[in-house]
DNA sequence: GAATAATGGTTTGACGTCAAACTATTTGGC
DNA sequence: GCCAAATAGTTTGACGTCAAACCATTATTC
């Protein structure tokens, strides 16, 4: 009783549709835990980015920049696939990064439909900052988590991911 | 190489700031796995709700209804706390549910600042539907996951949650 | 080779979300 | 008792997000 979502191994199974339910500061079920961890991680990253001077961008912009650190020229569709966001969303996100001077857009010469996105020098300068933020975040994330736990976590989460 | 975020136990630590990075259909790190699971679960729930006639509402509305199934009268601030959303967000969400006929709002007589939210009969009718959707979702979620994994998952995720 | 389909991006409209400013009540200190 | 601080909700403005409609260009098909 008082649980969110699932009373393990008991008769009663409480209802919790979505992933954000919170009962007196306890986090009783995995679904909502997942949701809340994601939220905390995102907030943490945004605040770290703001500290480093990236006040105006959010995690999705970060995903795009990160993708371009790894692959310096991507089409809009590429980005959409990589960051798991609708193409119209990507249009908005990339346009903002262009406006801020981090990216450039350029139409392909062979196929006039496709647009290539690339980093500007100002955009490239962000890479080390991203790296340090990422490292700090991962250190914090995995603090107190043993390698065994990490492996099991990854395995179990992969299973769950594939259940949907 | 080609990893997102973390190459376990190796020298290179790839960068992945946010939680939605996707590399050729693989899900290589826990942070992005978490984010994607959350997304899939949410989509699944919304689509199940739509199937059951709840076309117009999303998971956050579901959280509010769920909270009211458990506690039939809540203030706006209660709801905000329970579903982890800003109070202004709650105003919008509750107003929509009122507009759809699922909830009522009523000012407290003793303290004219507070507003009580409660289910209408039409709202109460949703409870069994929610219960079945929730059960189905949890069955799917935990399919192939052993009790041990579940426990370890919960423990590890709790640790991670508390790291932020 | 012209009509049709497919593809890549953008636009538009709706919505959830937050933060900040605001309103209206209550509570506390003096 | 009155003024200041606290509290409960709402409003407003900005933004990320998606889906659907749309526009351009390239591929197909006959």
Can you offer a commentary on this structure?
The structure is a homodimer of 164-residue chains. The first copy, chain A, folds into two domains: 51 residues; 92 residues, Arc Repressor Mutant, subunit A (Orthogonal Bundle). Helices cover 56% and strands 8% of the residues of chain A. In chain A, strands 1-3-2 form a three-stranded antiparallel β-sheet. In chain A, helix 1 packs antiparallel against helix 6 and helix 3 crosses helix 4. The radius of gyration of chain A is 20 Å and the shape is globular. At the A-B interface, helix 1, helix 2, helix 3, helix 6 and helix 7 of A face helix 1, helix 2, helix 3, helix 6 and helix 7 of B. The structure holds a DNA duplex (30 and 30 nucleotides).
Helix-residue proportion of chain A = 55-70%
Largest sheet of chain A: 3 strands, antiparallel
Q: How many β-strand stretches of chain A? A: 3
CATH superfamily of the largest domain in chain A: Winged helix-like DNA-binding domain superfamily/Winged helix DNA-binding domain
- Tell me the CATH architecture of the largest domain in chain A: Orthogonal Bundle
- How many domains in all of chain A? 2
Q: How are the elements arranged and paired?
A:
Two copies of one chain form a homodimer.
Chain A: H1 30-51, H2 59-70, E1 73-75, H3 76-83, H4 87-99, E2 103-107, E3 115-119, H5 121-124, H6 126-142, H7 147-162
Antiparallel strand pairs in A: 1-3, 2-3
Helix pairs in contact in A: 1-6, 3-4
The structure holds a DNA duplex (30 and 30 nucleotides).
